[in-house]
Backbone:
């Protein structure tokens, strides 16, 4: 397995973990009052958009040639960093409620 394939496999594993965390957060929204739930669900929707952007970047990397993939790593890392920070913030905020 080449470096690119290993990286994509690793990131797909992270994607599955993030999906599970977002699904768990979504399930928790049912415990909130209407106003809080509406705001919380909007943030979860934003997380899903960030996740979709990260997934697009990952899929571009997956199909890229080895030479082209070097240029795509920074885009993937930026997308993952954005998703990770957003998820951490929502998780932290959910613990406060």
Residues:
């Amino acid at each position: 397995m080449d470096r690119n394939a290993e990286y994509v496999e690793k990131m797909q594993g992270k994607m599955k973990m993030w999906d599970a965390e977002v699904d768990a957060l979504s399930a928790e929204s049912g415990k909130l009052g209407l106003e809080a739930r509406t705001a919380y669900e909007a943030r979860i929707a934003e997380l899903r958009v960030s996740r979709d952007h990260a997934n697009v970047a990952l899929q571009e990397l997956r199909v890229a040639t080895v030479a082209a993939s070097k240029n795509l790593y920074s885009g993937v890392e930026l997308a993952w960093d954005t998703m990770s920070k957003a998820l951490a913030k929502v998780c932290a905020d959910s613990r406060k409620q």
User: Anything to note?
Assistant: Helices lie at 3-28, 34-63, 66-96. The first helix runs from residue 3 to 28.
